[in-house]
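name: query_chain
kind: protein
chains: 1
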Amino acid sequence: PVLSGNIGSETRMKFGCIGDPVNTASRLEGLCKVYEVQVICSEAVAKALPESTPVICRRLDVVCVKGKQMPMCIHQVICDLELQPTAAIEAVRLRIAQYETALSHFQQSHFDEASQILSQLVADDVSDAVAARLLARAQHQRQQVESGAWSYVSLMTEKDARRRSPPLAWRRHMSANPGQRRSPP
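structure:
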């Protein structure tokens, strides 16, 4: 349930919404910067989209956001498909299928298979920060699973995940330009 309306006292009022769904939506909005995507939705929203909607969703990850006990599957919403030619849409669908196959391999601890697919996706499109992020995690997790300290669930321990770490594009920029000292965008 969500409470929406004027909240406060007679001397100080604010119009707003409060409730668990609002908090979850805020956490998902913060994850957009972490994953470097425009829009993220929950699995429930992705499944509820009608077939006629001109968007495609790509399963991104399984996360456990601050304040929640249960992990949730998150999706990237890819928009403006009605403006694309059919061949471009099919190419997007193929990349999504390849990424989701790699994600499944990752979640099953098949890091070599996941890395192979993700390496090809990143080589084909260096701007795909989502694939690059999962590739880095797969390469890192290879050592973690051997020690028994591995889970495919990404734990988001801050309310606002935007403060968690600079975006991948910024880290790449800084590694290529080590003399610059500026805060991330």
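note: The CA atoms of residues 126 and 154 lie 23 Å apart.
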